[in-house]
Amino acid sequence: xxxxxxxxxxxxxxxxxxxxxxxxxxxxxxxxxxxxxxxxxxxxxxxxxxxxxxxxxxxxxxxxxxxxxxxxxxxxxxxxxxxxxxxxxxxxxxxxxxxxxxxxxxxxxxxxxxxxxxxxxxxxxxxxxxxxxxxxxxxxxxxxxxxxxxxxxxxxxxxxxxxxxxxxxxxxxxxxxxxxxxxxxxxxxx
Length: 190
Fold this sequence. Notes:
Blueprint: E1 2-8, H1 13-22, E2 28-35, H2 41-48, E3 52-55, H3 58-61, H4 64-73, E4 78-81, H5 90-95, E5 100-104, H6 119-127, E6 132-139, E7 149-156, H7 163-189
Parallel strand pairs: 1-2, 1-4, 2-3, 4-5
Antiparallel strand pairs: 5-6, 6-7
């Protein structure tokens, strides 16, 4: 059994989609949704679906003596970052080698790194005049958005697309492919 913790900072549409996808799975279970923000709506979504939640503020997130016991309590052996906006400390990367993935809302290595999250990414894609965008799932490393790329999914853009249009197109990819990719990654690891 693979027990997943989903780390979130925001509204949690991906989080909810992942939880629903794995409901009833005999091999993969969402055990915990963890956020650095007490007001993250993802926590409400998770609780409505019967998943335990936990808030770990930034100061405590960087302390292994606080976070690791929580993950051990839930027997977590895989972590999914789904809109989680804190830098991942080395102790956590070392504790979950090739067992922690992140979703980035662009085709890395373009439009990644510090400050490239959410709408900032889609605005940068628009400003660059890109003809396509997409999502990247990658292993988490000590470099922001710099981990080895596992898979990318693409969608075409038109010159008339606004940053909001780009965001909507990319979000459709996330809803369709993120849970399936998680399942495939885990099954290949086992």
